[in-house]
Amino acid sequence: MKIAIGCVNHQNTMIGDKILSTLNRLNWPCPAAVIIRHSERPHISSAIGTNDVSLTAHGITASVRLGQELAKRCKTIRLFHSPVLRCAQTANHIHEGAVQAGAASLVMGHRNSLGGSYMTDSARALPLADQLGNKFVRTWFDGGIDTSIIKPLQIALAEHINYLVAELQSAKSNECLDVHITHDWNVMLFREGIFDVRYDQAGWPDFLEGIVLHQTGDRRVFSYHDMSQEK
Predict the structure, then answer these.
(1) Cα 198-91-211 angle, rounded to 5 deg
(2) Residues 158, 31, 36, CA angle at the centre, nearest 5°?
(3) Which segments of the chain are extended strands (E)?
(4) What are the mean pLDDT values of the chain's consecutive 10-residue runs (231 residues total)?
(5) In angstroms, rounded to a whole number, what is the distance separating the alpha carbons of residues 52 and 42?
């Protein structure tokens, strides 16, 4: 089942509510992995030189709140993030909130898989992203960019799934929730590659929005909003 997705309505929805709603619909499965976009940052107009852009004050508050909410249902939370500052900040503030609420929270550090690991030549990919603007991801996902610059959607998605599964299998507790903080493009890989949710129709992923992976044996179920898909 698929739903129509629009832009976030800040009057009715707080940052992070959508991933909490998905987890609640699934009855908070454990062990599970969540891959989400980082929290709110200021607007950026270029793909180049933005690694040091920090979260806004609202983004920090939302991250702490998400950590507090996760801690109400999860005994152990492990946090992974991309090498980019705003993702590290998101992880640290989720950790802060989780600890405040009494959870065992661990910041596991950065993982290259949560950054731009799909770019085979970032020196060409990032200027091309600036040149194409919002059409860059559509061109990429439709196979219109040379693979010497960026990996095809399904290959990049498979690498991301393998990464999530490997980390989840390394957890020592069956009551662990892994939270992977990444970027909008990475979330869109899952949305389109698994659920056929196109950003040019559904809009850009919100901050702290993402996908849940629940694995039982060899069965992997991905969930996004009210959709679930075995893959």
Answers:
(1) 30
(2) 55
(3) 32-37, 76-81, 104-110, 176-182, 210-216, 219-224, 227-230
(4) 32 84 95 97 89 95 98 95 98 98 96 97 96 96 98 98 94 89 97 96 96 88 96 82
(5) 12
Contact in structure between 141 and 196 (CB atoms under 8 Å): no
Report residue 103 as tokens: 């959870």
The answer, as to whether pTM is greater than 0.90, is yes
| Lookup: tokens for 217 | 């044996």
Cα(78)–Cα(95) distance, integer angstroms: 9
Closest CA to 34 of 185, 170, 212, 159: 212
- Whether 59 contacts 5, CB under 8 Å: no
* Strand bridging mode 76-81 / 176-182: parallel
Both tokens of 17, joined, read 């509510």
Q: Is 217 left (phi over 0), alpha (psi -120 to 50) or beta?
A: left
Token pair 């950026």 in the structure block, residue: 44
For the record, the structure tokens of 55 come out as 């979260």
Helix (H) or strand (E) holding 169, with range, is: helix 153-169
